[in-house]
Amino acid sequence: MATEKPPLKKRSVVSSFIYKYVDENGERKPKVALFRRSDKVNTYQHRLAVISGSIEKTDPSPLVAAWRELQEETTLTAQSLELLREGKPYVLPDEDIGREWTIYPFAFRLKDPEEGGKGEGGITIDWEHESWGWYDPFEVVDSDEFGGVPKLAESLRRVWFEKDLGEAAGKLLAEGLDKLKHDHQSGARQLAGVALQTLRDIIATLDSPEPSDEWWAKVRFAAWHIWKNGRESMGAAIMNALVSALKSTEETLRQHKEHPASAHSMKWRDAVLGDLERRISLRGTDSVRIISESFAKYLSDGFAPEEGAGRLIRILTLSESSTIIACLKHAVLHTNACFDLRVLESRPLFEGVSLVGTLTNELLATQATLHEAEADPNAPPKLKITLFTDASAALASVDVDIVLIGADRIAASGAVSNKTGSLPAVLSAKHISPKSKTVVIGESEKVAPPGNPADHVVEDNDPVQLLRAWKSEYNSDRVRHTAGTIARVVGSEVGGEATSGGFDGTKVAVSNVFFEWVGPELVDVYVTEFGLWTVKDIERHSGTLGSEVDRLFKDI
């Protein structure tokens, strides 16, 4: 009688690939570091591998585990490495050793010494490896001859998408991701448009006479990377736009397979590209108009005008959202209310100041309308705007009726991720003006699939954005001198980056986190293109979206 095999022991691990770029014959070529495992490890002795290790229960995320293993096995830290990409996790059963691995792949770029890093001279291997070297990622294969650990190439392709997509399409995807990562001016809606344009360009490059399963897998693979490796702090809007486009592409492919000889079906590729181009050109036009009308109706229903005069509505907001600007402009022009608008400056990039500039410029063309409203010398101005420092959020909250915030991401629970400063503004208003309402403005595409908001990526941005403000000539000598000292202590500013550092046992770091969460218990209403939503509506939409995400991306 055959003996039953014991169940495989399940273990979650990270696999971290370190890349650098070298010049070969005038071209910039990638190289990946592979490490030969020593005879002191329990599994896969003398096989080529990457930096890997278990994800502990105490690790807040797989990425935290990846950084820890990198430092333990190579001594490299964030001063010498930057996260380049993450790959889609996958499960690898290995019955030979009785394990089932869940692998979380990551790719890191090795910084040059000119960028403040230690370069490859900073790589010091520990007992787990006996040697290491640089390899061409396109030559890494899963074969006995190559000598890698099981599924090494599979893990690599999940972060090095050029291997699947080809160099031309891979280059377009890398450029698109770079654009998304470094655009700190555009909002989530605009970045979703950039994501669609990137997908369109990739599809145009993926030449195929027929929409094969392989072609469709590559398209979904590219879309997944645009979602996860572009600007994940705004990933909900990007993902929603991509999922909607993929569903439309899927329908085009279905029609082609069912009626391959029809004239329309023969042009399946043109139909896919045409649909994406229409989505890009019409990006958000209708939804913003409908949201603006919904917001105006909310104001009219909730803030009835006083007898004989337009009601004065006091609104506090921050940062710069094109949708909020559209809503405010529409409310000023199309309601009987007068508005006392308080705007927090929104450091370090002062988006609140930019919001005021954009709103006033757009209203210049409608001065006649505003002047008519102010014909009565005793009437309050149609719109009064006051800019406040971020630190004076409580002062700006006095007698406020509405705290108006945008949404870069809305969790299934109804929690809202928005520009840092949103939570202090909401809490200040709830304390200073208890009757005030917190109103979230955002398209339904800002809603994310089900998941814990705490697992969402924390976008800690370039400290130089803060140092630059502190070094301003308008500051005192002491502030400017301190800014210079901090810049030297935390690390190099070459390339516009600064990292944590220290001296004599003192560690100094500069935190520049862009987004924070506002809990659903603090939100009174969500204004969307479908009208006024509650947390129940958010949950329902998130669940539907989660099912589509699982279906489209589960097998790539």
From TrEMBL:
CDD domains: NUDIX_eIF-2B. It comes from the Eukaryota. Residues 9-158 form the Nudix hydrolase domain. One of its GO terms (biological process) is L-methionine salvage from methylthioadenosine. InterPro entries: IF-2B-related, IF_2B-like_C, NagB/RpiA_transferase-like, NUDIX_hydrolase-like_dom_sf, NUDIX_hydrolase_dom. GO terms for molecular function: S-methyl-5-thioribose-1-phosphate isomerase activity; translation initiation factor activity. Pfam families: IF-2B, NUDIX. Keywords: Initiation factor, Protein biosynthesis. PROSITE patterns: NUDIX. Signal peptide: none annotated. Belongs to the eIF-2B alpha/beta/delta subunits family. PANTHER family: METHYLTHIORIBOSE-1-PHOSPHATE ISOMERASE, TRANSLATION INITIATION FACTOR EIF-2B SUBUNIT FAMILY PROTEIN (AFU_ORTHOLOGUE AFUA_2G14290). This is Putative translation initiation factor eif-2b subunit family protein. It comes from Phaeoacremonium minimum (strain UCR-PA7). The lineage of its organism: Eukaryota, Fungi, Dikarya, Ascomycota, Pezizomycotina.
